[in-house]
Specification:
Blueprint lengths: L1 H12 L5 H26 L4 H29 L3 H28 L14 H4 L11
Length: 137
């Protein structure tokens, strides 16, 4: 997943002389984006309306993070390290927010949960209040 590579690039940015591994990790994260997009779109098809709103915000934040890391990569490739680190740091902050949205989507809203289990009553997951946190137990 892109965020893991980008997080590692930020760690390498903190270590003097590790510019090349940081640049490669930014590139690795960018290379993983298309796969993440395809998987996200596949998951999106199974979301309800409420989950889709969060999914759109998650995707938009990831698009912004990807753009910032693309700018970071281009600057790093040209040897402009400071100009590469700044958008990378901003991209990591945005990717972290996107990750929090994805976590909310999965854990609080139950997206993807019990996908392969048959439920006797689909309301088991929604409960009386669809906005309330899920309790699958």
């Amino acid at each position: 997943m892109p965020i893991e590579a980008w997080l590692c690039s930020a760690v390498f940015d903190l270590v003097p002389g590790q510019e090349e591994p940081a640049r490669r990790l930014v590139a690795t994260g960018l290379a993983a984006v298309p796969v993440a997009v395809v998987l996200g779109l596949a998951d999106y098809a199974d979301l309800d309306r409420r989950q889709r709103r969060v999914g759109v915000a998650h995707a938009a934040a990831n698009a912004v993070a990807t753009t910032l890391f693309a700018v970071s990569y281009l600057a790093r490739r040209e040897g402009r390290l400071t100009r590469g680190k700044l958008p990378g740091a901003a991209g990591l902050a945005v990717a972290s927010a996107a990750g929090a949205l994805g976590g909310h989507l999965s854990y609080a809203q139950g997206a993807g949960a019990y996908r392969w289990q048959e439920l006797a009553d689909p309301a088991e997951l929604a409960g009386a209040d669809p906005a309330a946190p899920r309790d699958p137990a």
